[in-house]
Amino acid sequence: MxxxxxxxxLLSQPAAQQLVNFDLxxxxxxxxxxxxxxxxxxxxxxxxGIVGLGLIGGSLGFDWRDRGHRLLGYSRxxxxxxxxxxxxxxxxxxxxxxxxxxxxxxxxxxxxxxLETTVRELRDYWHPEAxxxxxxxVKQPIVAALDPLWPRFVGGHPMAGTAENGxxxxxxxxxxxxxxxxxxTDQTDPAAIAVVAQLAQELGSVVLHCxxxxxxxxxxxxxxxxxxxxxxxxQTCLQExxxxxxxxxxxxxxxxxxxxxxxxxxxxxxxxxxxRYNQAAxxxxxxxxQIQLERLKTAIAAADEPAIAAILxxxxxxxxxxx
Length: 323
Prior knowledge:
There is one protein chain. It is built from 13 helices and ten strands. It is α/β, with parallel strands linked by helices. Helix 8 crosses helix 12. The protein is globular, with a radius of gyration of 22 Å. Keywords: Oxidoreductase. Belongs to the prephenate/arogenate dehydrogenase family.
């Protein structure tokens, strides 16, 4: 039996609670019997529109199309549309927004900074009953901006990615066993939540529900802060005053440096959007990180090896919680 997902203890919204007590199979039975009126609910095959055919949008297209859904892609660049079709990401793609007219679900996979503008520009082309969701890594300002613009909007964030971007970076199976967070509010249509949750489950994702503010605090800790720590690491390497040492360091860099520097060497636009839209939560976590770094610095300067060992031992024990 399909379930509506695993629910974070953070959430107490009536809409989410209704889904806790109402499994998705029951939604489908009600839909087949007409018991939910004209509300669009999940079906075996859906017409899914994707706005933005990059890494995330393209990877979603791959997986949903492989599962039999019909994928409709929109990008301002004709060349991107052509490549999306050629790679098998979508069934049809066009720079004409009318391509989305028949879509039952529309996924906004554009950068955070253009989400609101994109909805304002394209919404007249969408079916009035279409369900709209996004993939942005910040939720509170996005949900606040888009909820009033579309009555069936469901905030979403698939927690997966790579350092690459663009349609050529799209991958099958990117979301397998990864968290896919939905951030409904008290006003979010429960049937719309159920449809997006079902589609996320079809990706093999672990579906989680929490409120937008809690989401943003959590991702500031485990996603956004690491980007800036990693970026600072790379910058530190670049500030080495001896060119010969800097060259040697670059030559010696291996798997450890690759792991710790990956997110700091990714798409710059993503980092800028994190800093803009999740500023308060990110600054709070940077302050906490600086305290911990200073704590380690003090222990190292004092040659306090027991203190250093205690910190590293705790890290070794607790790290698996986050993996």
